Structure formats: structure tokens, C-alpha cells
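so my prof wants the structure for this chain in the C-alpha cells format not the other one, which i didnt know existed until like an hour ago. anyway here's the sequence
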Amino acid sequence: MSGRQASGATTRKTVETSATREFHSRPLTRRFRLQTLVRLRWLAVAGQTLTVLAVDLLLAFPLPLLEAAFLIGALALANVMLSLWFPPTHRLGPKSALALLSFDLLQMAALLFITGGLANPFAPLICVPVIISFASQPLRHSIPLILLAIACTTALAFSPYPLPWYPDQTLRLQPVMQLGIWCAIASMMCFAAFYAYRVSNEATLLADALAATELVLEREKHLSQLDGLAAAAAHELGTPLATISVVAKEMEREFGDDERLRDDVQLLRSQSERCRDILQRLTSLSAASEEHMRRLPLSSMIEEVIAPHRQFGIEISLVELGERATEPVCMRNAGILYGLGNLVENAVDYARSRVTLTVEHDRDHVTVVIEDDGAGYSPDILSRIGEPYMTKRNKEVERAGGLGLGLFIAKTLLERSGARLVFENRSGNEAGARIRVEWLRPMLEEG
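here's what i got, hopefully its the right format
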């Protein structure tokens, strides 16, 4: 086995680890644009203004119009100041977002307080800033906001202001009804906040994992192109180096008898010949971008995948159920090579002594089955396999297959190439895990 092949598994691990580390070294704080919050607040200003005008002018219900106008004006003034002080592309940090959402919450609570408290049918709107915070901000900055919202909801129950109603009637809620409304708002607030946080968190994790997938694939492509870049550099440097060599020979012939220059000229010529030898070795390396290397038979692709993993003391058996004369010729795809290599690497890591690859192809389909004789997947892991950042493992025994970001990356890359993956445990008395990867043959051949 060549040194290049032997280092394949180590290189794959290094690429994945370094790329993931680089991705996660970036700040994970979720920030949203100030302009987004400003537009939402203008919508709130418009809605509150229309509601107050409709109650005062259309329904002719008495309400503290001056106080309501002051609170709505305060929100509009804050919006104008934010628009003037910060550019539209400014992104809020968690503390700034908490401060602004707390202001919005207090403004809404104050407006509800002077218009009937919990009796006001718009009281559930106090949940809006909380939902926005849990959907866009870290949990540690959202919990204080929901506690403030519950405190404001409690204060609304003690509002001395009556609900704007017909002048000759007074509409007041009984304490039991107020308690029921408080419980409804509090429970809705907690449920909506939890739901928004879970959905947002899962979407963020998925986006992070996909970004890490793109980064790993880009690193893999760069590694596969290094030989071609080296050969291209050697070709470009060949002409000037040949000129230097010719000039060195002429100088040696001209100044060979001069003791002051002879040693320097001989050193110049010897170093130019050394550079030429180095460039010749570089040009002998295979270039992944060369046309004759862009397509390879299925058997060669599988051998390229498993070759780096034969040195770890686990027997790797290759079973071919089809004739090589009719095997497909595939486009070289860094995603397929990386994905299959990652699955084989995981099988080797968790196998006891043996990993078997079964390759089958017919006119319509190409199937690769990877099996190991390890402990297999536990039922809870099997139902969630392929999720990003899933790190739960059986504490008593290591389970077959990768269970974190590496497996997610491999699964994503293979599915992007058109493959369908099935993860399962081996049946019967044979313990271990089985991964079935299947393509439509035209899709694999056309890349």
C-alpha cells in the first residue's frame, strides 16, 4: 500500500475535525437585523393607533386617549431614534435585543393596563415579544423576558382602569374569570415560547451542520486537487529553470578557470539541477483534474474508498455480485468518495474483527452494502440516526456507525449524489450493523 493510500483515513479525520473546529470557532450567537425589529415595531405602532382610533371614533367608547397616545408615541419615537442612530444592516447582540424587546413588552403592558387589563381582548398580544425572543435569541437571554412578561400579566389583573365600554355600562370581570384568563395567557406564552425555541434551535443546528458539510466537502476537493496544482506549478516553472540551467552551463564554461567564480558557478548549476529533479517528481504525481482520471470503474472507486482502512487490524472483505465486464464507469465525485469512506471508517471503528462490502449492479441500479460484526445500533439510536449533533451512545458498549456530525455529513453528501440510504441491524444470529446505499445507475454514471 502506498503512503498516500495509507494516510487516507487519517487525512479524512483531519479534514473533518479541522473543518468542524473552524466552523464552531465562529460566534454561535444568533443575531437578527435591527431593521427587522424596527419594521415589526412600526407594524405595532400602526395596529395600536388604528385600534385606539376605532374604539374612540367608531365605537365612541370612553378611554384615556392622552395616555394611550403618549405610549404609542413613545414607541414611534424610539423607532425613529433607532433608525437614525444605526444603519439598516446593524445586527443586534443578545443584550441589545433583550433591552429592546423588554421595552416593547413594557409598552404593550402599560397600554393594556390603562385599557382594562386582563379584560382587554388584546391582552394575549403581550406574548409577542416573548415569542420573538425565544425564536431568535439564546435561551439565557430569553428566560428573563418571559419572567418579566409573566410579572406584567400578573400586574394587569390588578388594573384599576375599566375596559372601554358603553358609557352607561360597566364591564368588570370576576376574580375567577381573571384567574382563568391569566392562566390561559401564561400557558399560551410558555407553550409558544418553547415551541418557537425548539423549532428555531433545530433549524439552526441543521443550518450549521449543512454549512459544516459544505466546508468539509470544499476541504476534500482542495486536498484532491493538490497533486494537479503541484504538476501545473512544475510545468510553469520548467521553462525559467531550463533557462537558468543553460546560463549556468555557459558561465561554467566561460569562468571554469577562474578560482574566484568557479565554486559559485558550480553551486548554481548543481542547485538548478536539484530543482529540476524536484519538479520532475512533482510532474509524476497524478492530477485529479486530468481528463483520464475523471472517470473510473465502480470496482476502482470502491477499492479507493476501502484502501486507506486496511491497516487497522480489521479484515475488510469485498464481495462483488456482478461481472466487472458490465460494471458502471462512474464520474469521480469527491462527495461520494468522502461519504462512502466515512461509512467504511465508522464500520471499521466499531467492528470486532470483520467488515464486509457487498457491491451489486444491474442495468438499472447500483447497490453498496456495508456490514460489520460489532454490536449494532440500539433501537433509540436507530430511530434518530443521521441527525446532526446526535452524540448519545450506549455507555456499556460502543455502537456501530458514526452517531454525530460525521455521519450526518456522509449521509448528506451521498443523498446529494442521488443515493438512498437505509440503516439497520443485521438479522438472524449475526450481530452488527448494516448500511445499504443505492443509486439509479444512470445517475451514478452521469455524476
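also thought this was worth mentioning. Residues 221-283 form one domain.
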